[in-house]
Amino acid sequence: MTDGVRIERVITQGVLGLGKPGYPPEGIPIENNVWILGDDSSALVIDAAHDAAEIAAAIGDRDPLGILLTHGHEDHINAAVELASRLDTHLYLHPADQFLWEQTVGSEILPDFELADGAIFSVCGSELVTIHTPGHTPGSVSFYFDALGTLFSGDTLFQGGPGATRWDYSSFSQILESIESKLLVLPGDTQVLTGHGDATSICAESKDLEAWKQRGW
C-alpha cells in the first residue's frame, strides 16, 4: 500500500573536519542529502546531517518513526542527537560504526538501537529493509524500499561508482563485494538515492562494475 507515500530530499550544508588533523584549519565545506520517507501523517529520516532545525522543520507535525543512520561518519551524524531530541524519536546505527560515532559525538550518548542486516522498518504499511554494505565503513548500511523501487545507498554507491575507501578501516574489495552481491542484484530500474549529489539507478551503475574493478578504487 503506497498511497500518499513519498520521498523528500533535504540538502544540508556544513563543514567537514573543522580543526582536525589532515584537514585545512577552516575545514571542508560539504553538502549532504537527508532523505525523508513517509506520508502526511508519519515519516522516517535517513541520516542526520549538519542542521537539525532544517530537518525537523521538514518533518513538521508528522509522527517521526525514527532516524536511520547509513554510517557513522561525522557529516551523516553530527545533527543526530539534537534532531532526535527535537523530534522525540530514536536513533539507529550499525554497531560496527560505533567507534566513528564516539569520535564525533562521544560515548556519553549512544544510538538507541543497533541496525542489523535484514532489519525491517514499517513505513506507511510498506517495508524498508536494511542491507549491511560494509566497505566505506565497517557498519555502512543501505536501505531498500521496494514499494517505491528505491535504494537509499548512503556513501556506498554513487552516480559514478563506489564511495571512498581511503581510511585504514575501509576496504575497496569489501565495498565492491557489497555493491556487486547485495545492491546490483536489485531490479535494474531501482532508483538509487545517495548520501551526496545526484540520484542514479542500479542499471546505470551496474554497467561499469568491471571498470571499477580494473581501476582499483
UniProtKB/TrEMBL annotation:
CDD domains in alphabetical order: metallo-hydrolase-like_MBL-fold (cd06262)
Domain of life: Bacteria
Keywords: Hydrolase
One term of GO molecular function: hydrolase activity
Domain Metallo-beta-lactamase: 31-196
SMART domains registered for this protein in UniProt: Lactamase_B (SM00849)
Record-given protein name: MBL fold metallo-hydrolase
Lineage: Bacteria, Bacillati, Actinomycetota, Actinomycetes, Micrococcales
